[in-house]
Each structure stands twice: as structure tokens, then as C-alpha cells.
Amino acid sequence: MPATPQASRIASWLLQRCLGPASGRRRLARQLRKYLLRSWAPAFQAEYFGARLLFPGQHDLAILSNDLPLFNTPLRRLAQAVRNHETTLRLLDIGANIGDGLPLVDPQPTDQFWLVEGSSEFLPYLRANSATSPNVTIIPSYLGDQHSVAQGAEVVIAGNAHILAGAAGELVFETLDRLFPGSSPTLPNLLKIDVEGHEARIFAGGADLLRRVQPPVFMEWYPSLLLREGENELASLDRLLAAGYTDAVIYDNLGFLVGTFALAERAHLQQFAHYAQMRDLFYFDLAVFAPKHSRLREDFCASETAFYADWLRGRSG
Question: Which of the ends of the chain has fewer CB neighbours closer than 10 A, N or C?
């Protein structure tokens, strides 16, 4: 097992100077950090939703969450909505990265977490950031449509990892259905997935779990990355539709609510996909529900409408 990375006090100090409201000091600090990262990228520590996390040197989440106040926050509210309906949260986080999903969902003592991450770059950080959290199981594996060993390598850019098929090296893939067979004593009641365009394959490898358990799904929908992986733009949504899911609440990649749409509304979703492809580095976040979640979905949509109305009033006031 790789050793836990040690945070650089200087890198942590410099990152802190990159945060806060726009100012001349912040701009200079970011220019200095950008220059230093060309040749010096030690681990650093930063606050994220009340937790002091350890980050790889080039990870950009701390700055993104500083600049974009709604970034990633829909998942936090969805997790609380699930708790409101089921008392406890049992989160399966696929593509857990460095473990930032833990503080994001405000973990409670009775919650349970399965954190799936295959990247050797991120696993030491994930272990360090979840070490003191109870009821956490780390699954150090990539997921796919079948249990297999394939030729390939991981590529890490600015806090995201994706698989380069055919590159030198071997990667082992598990499936959701093997991790959570029908005999599993405890099952997730919320599935979060962010895997850089591999969602459709992972859903294929978890078809039985998705049909049998149907946890609400919070997912990144990145049409350009789906195309890069040889899928069509709606491939991941079609897998969920086939598993019995019907409705999605859609957000842009800054965390703003777009609206609610049925997965069967292919023409509308295709328009969203085309729009995303016209934008640079643009994707949507989706909260996806099955019919059995009707009360949860209705309550969540009502609370989201109220949340954004309050947020906009605060901005205008």
C-alpha cells in the first residue's frame, strides 16, 4: 500500500492565498501557483465543507468550490432528502477520487459509505481523508461492464482520472453486480457516479443491481466524454431507462438548476447533449429517480425550487 502523502506547508499556505473574494492579492497568488505547478506540485491541505482534506498538488477542487458557490451542492441536498425519507444514508460513491464526497454529504453517525476508486494516484488521498470516518468501506478497483483484466493505463489531469485503453499496463475491472449480489445484507440507497464517460459501461455491469434495488442516482452526464469512449450521448441515460428509472432533475456544471425531464423525452435530452458539445468542458449533473421514488422526488424538487428562489433573493438583496 503506498505511503500517505505528506502535505507541504508552503503549498497549503499558497493555496489558502488563492481563495477568498476576488482581489489583487488572490490574482497574484494564483499566477504564482500556476507557474510553480509546472515543476513543483506537492500535496496540500485545504478546507472543504468543514473538513480538512489532503489534495494532490494539481487538484483544483478547492479553487472551484471557492469560485462557484453552488458547485457540487445538489448532491449534499439530495443526500439529506434521502435521510429525511429513510432515516439513514447508504451512499455508493463510484469514482470517489480523494474522498471529497464524504464532507460534501455531511456524514451522520448512522450513515454508511462504499467508496469506489481505481486510481493509484487518488487512493492514498482517499484512504487518508476517510481514515477517521466510521462506516466507510473503500473498494480499490475500477468498474466496468464485466469482470476482466484489460490493457490500459490511467491518465490524471487536474484532479480527474480517465482510462487510456490500449496503453502499456494492465487494469482490473470489477462490476457492480459482483460487488452487490442479491445476497448482500446491506445495499445502497443513493448511488453517486463520476467516471469521465464510463458511466454506461458501469451501469451495464450493474444492470441487476439497478433493476433490483433502484437507488436514486446522482451522476455526471458529459456527452463529449461518452462520445470519446465510443458511446452515444444518451448511452448512460438509456441504461437507467432500461432499469426502470423515469425522471431526472438536471443541473448545469456550475450547480444551477435547469429543470426536470423524463428520460423518455429523447428529443429534449438530445438538445441538451448538443448544447453541451458546443461548450468547452461542459457537462450536466443529474439526479435520477425511479417511480418508487415518487414522494422523494416530489419533496426534493419542491425543496430545490425553494432553495434556488432563496438563493436568488439573497443575490438580489
Answer: C
pLDDT digits (tens, 9 = 90+) for 44-95: 999 999 999 999 999 999 999 999 999 999 999 999 999 999 999 999 999 9
Which of 140, 81, 79, 135 lies closest to 111 in space, CA to CA? Answer: 135
> What cell does 153 get?
493505463
Residue (of 249, 267, 119, 144) closest to 200 by Cα position: 144
Nearest alpha-carbon partner for 67 in 26, 29, 6, 13: 26
Q: List, for residues 208-227, the tens digit of each pLDDT value.
A: 999 999 999 999 999 999 99
Q: What is the pLDDT of residue 152?
A: 61
Tell me which CATH code domain 66-316 carries: 3.40.50.150
Q: Is the pTM of this model over 0.90?
A: yes
Query: What is the domain partition of the chain in residue ranges?
Result: 9-65, 66-316
Output the pLDDT for position 149. Answer: 77
DSSP sequence for 231-251: --TTHHHHHHHHTT--EEEEE
Give CA angle at 204 (300, 117), nearest 5°: 75
Find out whether 114 and 188 touch, Cβ atoms under 8 Å. yes
Dump strand ranges (E) for the chain: 44-48, 51-55, 90-94, 112-116, 136-139, 142-143, 148-157, 160-174, 190-193, 217-221, 247-252, 257-262, 284-289
